[in-house]
Amino acid sequence: MSHEDARAAAERAARASYGRLVALLAAPTGDVALAEDALSAAFEAALDSWPRGGVPANPDAWLLTVARNRQRDHWKSAATRSSVELDEEGAGAVTVLDEVDPDRIPDRRLELLFVCAHPALDPAVRTPLMLQAVLGIDAARIAAAFAMPAATMAQRLVRAKRRIRDARLRFAVPTRAELPERPPAVLEAIYGCFAIDRGLPTPDWSTSLTGEAAFLAVTLATLLGTEPEAWALAALITLSSARLRPPGAAYLPLDRQDPREWDARLIAEGERYLRRASGTEAPGRFQLEAAIQAVHCDRARTGLTDWPALVLLHRALVATAPSLGAHVALAAALGGADDPAAGLRELDALPATAVACFQPYWATRAHLLAATGHPAEARAAADRAIELSGDEAVQVFLREFADGLGSRAAGTAP
After folding, report:
1. Which of 170, 207, 258, 287 has an alpha carbon within 20 to 30 A of 26's alpha carbon?
2. Residue-wise pLDDT tens digits, 234-250
């Protein structure tokens, strides 16, 4: 087997199983940092061993075995022998290692998510910690999503993992008395995983961050039973996933996509989840966002976009969760409903410092300026959106949009 094939197999295992393996490794002692180090060493060993001996039949079990052995070596070292105390479950996990089948072990990522949502941890670091420890997103990427220097984020994550280890926070689904205070943070982390990955092309939905977020959202909703926001998040991610862009495909804004190319199975699944989330008098943020996605997906059935419904839902979202993204999305909906001037007023009300580096703001502003007959200003806004975009396909689309502004005053929404 070539080194390239072995690396590809290791990357697939990392995408599909990183969080589950970290959770299994960290559960006995609560040492998340040691679990991550041991798993990293296991992947290094795989890149050395698999080209020579081939990829094992169960790569996850192979990685878990090697990582557990690294942990065991650490625990047996003179420096740590007297400081580590394994509980019965942890000790058993070490001794039965060779027979472990990760596919048969109950998913422990939710346990780790609940650990990361523990009240003993700083609320500001809970979501970033879940994104890294459970979902395998690197600190630099998380820092960028939180508009924070990578070094600062890395320090916060190290301190949080140390806190989990030193306080010996329990790896378990919380009791009914403990449960109400933790799901919001867990839902935010799962949503953060989805948001970081949203819109990017993916070779395999099931092993993408979006697919991982969908799996965790459904698992959490099932665990909680009747929590509307949990089912709504599952609906939101699933409905959005129905329109994922395949690798190599050109970027197209939602109103230019062909609904016949969307995944009808995922749309039906997402609509089922949304029905389970309905019935509350005051819908929460995820219920509103899922309803917005459902309206867009309904174009696959009707061939039309219900813009008045979208404006109404976006206004409700701004009232419920007035984030920067919610305001920009409302402006775009107003433009879609043939009121681009109102959309511009919505954008103009946002603080200049807040939107300076927010790419969706500039892309939406470019469209609305073009639609109101200001091509020069629209071109400047499109150029700024191009600078801020990290997606080459989006950059290509925006350049074509900007180049067309010389001969027309209005255009398609970026």
Report:
1. 207
2. 999 999 999 888 777 88
| Integer Cα distance of 283 and 64 in angstroms | 42
pTM of the model: 0.74
Q: What is the pLDDT of residue 83?
A: 52
Residue 238: both structure tokens together: 């699933």
One DSSP character per residue, 180-195 reads: GGSHHHHHHHHHHHHH
Q: Is-contact 230 219, C-beta < 8 A?
A: no
Cβ atoms of residues 172 and 111 within 8 Å? yes
- Quick one: 412 exposed, middle or buried, by C-beta within 10 A (0-12, 13-18, 19+)? middle
- Distance from CA of residue 76 to its chain's centroid? 37
User: Cβ neighbours of residue 185 under 8 Å, at least 6 residues apart?
Assistant: 116, 117, 123, 126, 127, 130
Residue 370 has a pLDDT of 96
pLDDT for residue 220:
85
> What's the pLDDT at 86?
44
Tens digit of pLDDT for each residue in 161-176?
Answer: 999 888 888 777 677 6
- Concatenating the DSSP letter of every residue in 328-368 gives HHHHHHHHHTT-HHHHHHHHHTS-HHHHTT-HHHHHHHHHH
| Number of C-beta neighbours around residue 74 at 10 A | 16
Query: What parts of the chain have a pLDDT lower than 70?
Result: 1, 78-107, 173, 176-180, 198-208, 406-414
DSSP 380: H
Q: What is the pLDDT of residue 386?
A: 96
- What separation in angstroms does the CA of 276 have from each of 172, 173, 288, 314? 26, 23, 14, 21
How many CA atoms within 13 Å lie on the side-chain side of 232? Answer: 20
Q: How many CB atoms lie under 10 A from the CB of residue 4?
A: 9
Q: Residue 101 is inside which H or E element, if any?
A: none
Which region holds residue 199: left if phi is over 0, alpha if psi is between -120 and 50, else beta?
A: left
* Residue 95: per-residue pLDDT: 34
Residue 242, phi then psi, degrees to nearest 5:
-65, -15
72, containing H or E segment? helix 59-76
φ, ψ dihedrals at 177, nearest 5°: -70, -35
Q: Do residues 234 and 214 touch, judged by C-beta distance below 8 A?
A: yes
Q: Which residue matches tokens 């965790």? A: 216
Q: What pLDDT score was predicted for residue 87?
A: 43
Please check whether residue 323 is in contact with residue 192, taking contact to mean a CB–CB distance below 8 angstroms. Answer: no
Write down the pLDDT at residue 94: 36
